[in-house]
Amino acid sequence: MADTLTGSTPRAAAPVPEFPMARAAGCPFDPPPSLRAQQDEGRLVRVRLWDGSTPWLVTRYEDQRSLLLDPRVSADITSPGYPLQAPSNGKNNISFILMDDPEHARLRRMVTAPFAVKRVEALRPGVQKIVDDLIDGMLAVGGPVDLVQAFALPVPSLVICQLLGVPYEDHDFFQENSKILITRDAVMEDRMAAHGKLLGYLDELMGEKLARPADDLLSGLVARVESGELSRQDVAQIGVLLLLAGHETTANMIALGTLALLEHPEQFALLRDTNDPKLVASAVEELLRYLSIVHGGRRRAVLEDIEIAGQVLRAGEGVIMPNDIANRDPEAFADPDRLDLTRDARRHVAFGFGVHQCLGQPLARMELQVVYSTLYRRIPTLRAAAEVDGLPFKHDGSVYGVYELPVTW
Ligand code: HEM
Questions:
Q1: pTM of the prediction?
Q2: Which atom of ligand 1 lies closest to the CA of 368?
Q3: Which of 3, 33, 44, 283 lies at a 20 to 30 A Cα distance from 129?
C-alpha cells in the first residue's frame, strides 16, 4: 500500500547470484569480477549453489578471518546447512579437514610433528635433489615439454610419497583418482568410486607397514592403530587426505606460479637473478596470495546465530569464504591486483585461517622455495610454448591451476 501512496513500484528482489562465479576472459589470475563487486559493496549476500541452497558469501578479508576463528562455525560436512561443493552421500570420509574440535584436534595432533618447520627443513636437500634431477631430465629431452607432467606434478608427488611411505610407482593411480575427487563436476558415483579406490589402496599399504614397519609417516600411524589410539579407517582416511593435499595443491602452485611469472617478465627476472633466500621466501608468499589456488572457498555451517558486517547469520545457514577475493582486499593489501614479489604478503589467507589452517604449509613453502629459486635460474630462457588464452585452466576444480603448460627455452 505504501508503495501505491508514494507512487513508487515495489522493488524487485535482487536475483541471487550463482556460485562459483566465472573469471573474466583474459584475466586468468584474477578472482571473478562479481566477487570483487560484492567486496566493494561490503554487505554479505546470499549465493545459489548447484543444489539450490543459498548460503552467505563473505568476501572481505577481516570478516573471513573473524568467522574462521569463531567456534560457532562448523567445518563438519554433516552439520545442517553446510554448503556442499558437490553431491555427497552425507558422510564424512575425508577425515579431520571436515570435522570440528575436539575430534578434529585429536586426529590432527597425530600427524602434526612431521610437518613442523624443523622436520621439514631437514627434507630440503632431498627436495633440492628431486628438483635438480627433474630439471636435468627436461634439459636432456629438450623443449617443448608439458611443465605439469614433467615437473609440477612429480615434485610434490615424489616428496609426499617419501614422507608417507607410498611407492611413487603408483603415482598414475593416485593422481588420476585424486583428480576425480577434486573435480567439482564429476558425478557423485565417480567421486565415491575414486575415493573408495584410494581408501582401499591406503588400507592395503597399511597391511604392508604392519608386516614391515619403516621410517615413514604411515608406519607411525599404523603403530597408533596397534596402540588403540586410531582405527584402521581413521588411518586410511588421514592417508588419503595427506596424499591428495600433499601433491595437488603444490603442483598447481608450481605450474600456475610459473605461468604468472612468465606473464610478468620483470618479476620473473627478479627470481631468476637472485640468490637471496629472503626474496625467494617473500616471492612464495606473494604468489600464494596472488593466485590463491584453493578457490572454492572455505565452507562452514553456522551453529549459533552470529552477527557480522551488519548481518545476522542464523544457526543452520551455510557460509562460503573464497580466499582468492580476501587476498585481493585493498583494506588488507595495498594495490592488491599487482603481483609484487618484494611486498610483505605473509598475512595472506591462501592456507586458510583458524584451527583448520593448512597443516602442510611448512612443507609447501619449502618445496615452492626450492622450485622457484632453482627452475628459472637453471632455465633462464624459459618461456610458454602456447598462447595463454588457449591454455586449459582448471575452472571446474576446487583447486585452480592449469591442466597443461607447454614450455620451451
Ligand atoms: C601450496 C600448497 C597448499 C595450499 C595452497 C593449501 C591450502 C590449504 C587450505 C586453504 C586449507 C584450509 C582448509 C579449510 O579451512 O577448510 C588447507 C588445509 C589442509 N592442508 Fe593444505 N595447502 C597446501 C599444501 C598442503 C600440503 C603440502 C599438505 C601436506 C600433506 C597439506 C595438508 C593439509 C591438511 C591436512 C589440511 C587440513 C587441516 C585441518 O583441517 O586441520 N596442504 N590447505
A1: 0.95
A2: 1
A3: 283
